[in-house]
């Protein structure tokens, strides 16, 4: 039985997904159109194994779903509104001083 996640849990899951540049690229690719893992791996220039790990994380976060398609499995955003949310986040004005970098740049979970 599915339970409804709290607002905090939803935001935390979204944040976890966005904390990794590859997962961001996957989400943006799926925002454009559903895709098969092999095609996504080729498009993003990463190994299928590495992509599989990121897709598993995105599934666990509830942001993508699998859709059986004959003998293949297609991935898509769990909700079309996620595409709109990604666009809103991507185009939001972020207050960043150009002469500063994130103190933990390059580590998981930062910037």
From TrEMBL:
It comes from the Bacteria. Gene3D superfamilies: Winged helix-like DNA-binding domain superfamily/Winged helix DNA-binding domain. InterPro entries: ArsR-like_HTH, HTH_ArsR_DNA-bd_dom, HTH_Metal-responsive_Reg, WH-like_DNA-bd_sf, WH_DNA-bd_sf. Residues 4-100 form the HTH arsR-type domain. This is Metalloregulator ArsR/SmtB family transcription factor.
């Amino acid at each position: 039985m599915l339970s409804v996640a709290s607002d905090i849990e939803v935001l935390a899951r979204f944040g976890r997904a966005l904390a990794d540049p590859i997962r961001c690229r996957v989400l943006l690719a799926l925002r454009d159109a559903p895709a098969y893992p092999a095609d996504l791996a080729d498009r993003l220039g990463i190994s299928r194994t590495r992509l599989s790990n990121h897709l598993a994380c995105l599934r666990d976060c509830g942001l993508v779903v699998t859709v059986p398609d004959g003998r293949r499995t297609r991935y898509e955003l769990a909700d079309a509104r996620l595409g709109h949310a990604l666009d809103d986040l991507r185009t939001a004005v972020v207050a960043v001083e150009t002469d500063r970098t994130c103190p933990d740049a390059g580590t998981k979970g930062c910037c």
